[in-house]
Structure formats: structure tokens, C-alpha cells
Write a structure and sequence with these properties.
There is one protein chain. This protein has four helices and no strands. It has a single domain, classed as ACP-like (Non-ribosomal Peptide Synthetase Peptidyl Carrier Protein, Chain A), CATH 1.10.1200.10. The two termini are 18 Å apart. The chain is globular and about 30 Å long. The model has no long low-confidence stretch (mean pLDDT 90). It has 79 residues and is mainly α.
């Protein structure tokens, strides 16, 4: 899951994927602004067929937060 999120972020933010880690803070470390985050979430929603509620969005500080959320959603859909 991390590899997919990393690839989306790298393309979206024009960053070398190697600088994007689970601990990377999306805004502070990677320089994403509100529009970047919105576009990222739209791509994730399209790719995974999810709707990410605003409450969840507010909890995303690091790349790891996004990955953990997606993994939880994936597990809940497989049950």
C-alpha cells in the first residue's frame, strides 16, 4: 500500500520517491498545499473506489497516516 501512495505523491508533488517515507509529513516535509492534498485524495478515492470523509482527512499528517487509513479500509471491505 505504501508503494502506491508513495508513487501517487511523487508524481503529484514532483518529488523523488526515495524522499517519501512513512514518516514524511505531507505538508511540512513534502511541501504539499491544500490543492495538492485535495488532488491526492481524489486520485486515491478514484483508484480505490473510496470516499474519504472530512473527519479522516483531518487526521492525515504523515504519509503513514494515509497508508494506515487505506489499509484499515481495505481490511474492512474484505470482511
Amino acid at each position: 500500500m505504501f508503494d502506491k501512495v508513495q508513487a501517487i505523491l511523487a508524481k503529484q508533488l514532483r518529488k523523488d520517491p526515495s524522499v517519501i517515507t512513512l514518516e514524511s509529513r505531507i505538508k511540512k516535509d513534502l511541501g504539499a498545499d491544500s490543492i495538492d492534498i485535495l488532488q491526492l485524495l481524489m486520485k486515491i478515492e478514484d483508484q480505490y473506489g473510496l470516499v474519504i470523509p472530512d473527519q479522516a482527512l483531518a487526521t492525515f499528517d504523515t504519509v503513514g497516516d494515509v497508508v494506515a487509513y487505506l489499509e484499515r479500509q481495505e481490511q474492512s471491505l474484505n470482511i
